[in-house]
TrEMBL record:
SMART domains: AAA. This is NitT/TauT family transport system ATP-binding protein. CDD domains: ABC_NrtD_SsuB_transporters. GO terms for molecular function: ATP binding; ATP hydrolysis activity. InterPro entries: AAA+_ATPase, ABC_transporter-like_ATP-bd, ABC_transporter-like_CS, ABC_transporter_ATP-bind, P-loop_NTPase. It holds the Pfam family ABC_tran. It comes from the Bacteria. Keywords: ATP-binding, Nucleotide-binding, Transport. It comes from Prauserella marina.
Length: 265
């Protein structure tokens, strides 16, 4: 295994159309190997920017990211990425979409097929291989995106609002599935969401970012076995505390998802 992340003094300023945008300011964070960390915050607080810097897809204006001893400045095979839109190639079968990273890594065809099938089984889609993406539901496509990211066996999975575009019941199912995969394989996961309930259900540790410029406002360690009961007194108190730090009223969809999650879990 490659060790955890060490993020030291990471700042990022974009050239905005009228004035510079300070997306991140002096982010300092360590993520332990095997830890499940959720980056939580409202739109525009720099969550995606931070995740992309951790993935080596963007470089910081200043500061450094290390995975173990390795300085991250470009994409790395030890790091897998899952986005909100899985961006599957419509002309390739599901299996051949999952094989993509293996192809780039030069893995022979027979081995690619075996590994793709194993990973489709892992995400609960054993029969999807010969199908095309258009034949799958949004939730199934997102599972394929996860299978594709896991197929190259990265040590770390970086996930940017991966369940943001699926319906609510599917989202709850995908959360449960992700926790199962994580507990079986114990990869390091850094997961971006703006949904407080999702953060509480998933995280070992929640890192709250606030905007203007993006900074770490607070972190919380979440105790308790999974699956978690969101209506337990401890987790209700944590939810209220997080909202008090986010400031203002919870966004409509967050309230709804919290309620749904309480019902669903
Ligand atoms: N390429 C870019 N050029 C200019 N500004 C950018 C660029 N990418 C991000 N920003 C700005 O940086 C800030 C942080 O953006 P980022 O997408 O990281 O936030 P976020 O918390 O992930 O938001 P969301 O939840 O809406 O995806 C925002 O003000 C955004 O407009």
């Amino acid at each position: 295994m490659s060790g955890g992340f060490t993020i030291e003094g990471v700042s990022k300023t974009f050239d905005g159309s009228s004035s510079p945008v300070r997306a991140l300011d002096d982010i300092r964070l360590t993520v332990e190997e095997g830890e499940f960390v959720v980056l939580l915050g409202r739109s525009g607080c720099g969550k995606s920017t931070l995740l992309e810097i951790m993935a080596g897809l963007q470089n910081p204006t200043s500061g450094t990211v290390h995975l173990g001893q390795e300085l991250i400045t470009e994409p790395n095979e030890k790091i897998g990425m899952v986005f909100q839109d899985p961006s599957l190639y419509p002309w390739r079968t599901v299996a051949r979409n999952v094989e993509l990273g293996l192809e780039l890594a030069g893995v022979p065809k027979a081995r690619r097929k075996t590994v793709a099938q194993e990973h489709l089984e892992l995400v609960g889609l054993p029969d999807a291989g010969p199908k095309y993406p258009r034949q799958l539901s949004g939730g199934m496509r997102q599972r394929v995106g996860i299978a594709r990211a896991l197929a190259t066996e990265p040590d770390v999975l970086l996930m940017d609002e991966p369940f943001g575009a699926v319906d609510h019941l599917t989202r709850l199912q995908l959360q449960r599935d992700l926790l199962r995969l994580w507990s079986e394989h114990k990869r390091t996961v850094v997961f971006v969401t703006h949904d407080v309930a999702e953060a509480i259900v998933l995280a070992d540790r929640i890192v709250l970012l606030t905007p203007g410029p993006g900074r770490i406002a607070r972190t919380w360690t979440v105790d308790g076995e999974r699956p978690r009961e969101l209506d337990s007194p401890e987790l209700m108190a944590l939810r209220d505390e997080i909202y008090s730090h986010i400031g203002g009223e919870p966004a409509e969809e967050s309230v709804q998802s919290t309620v749904d999650s309480q019902v669903g879990l």
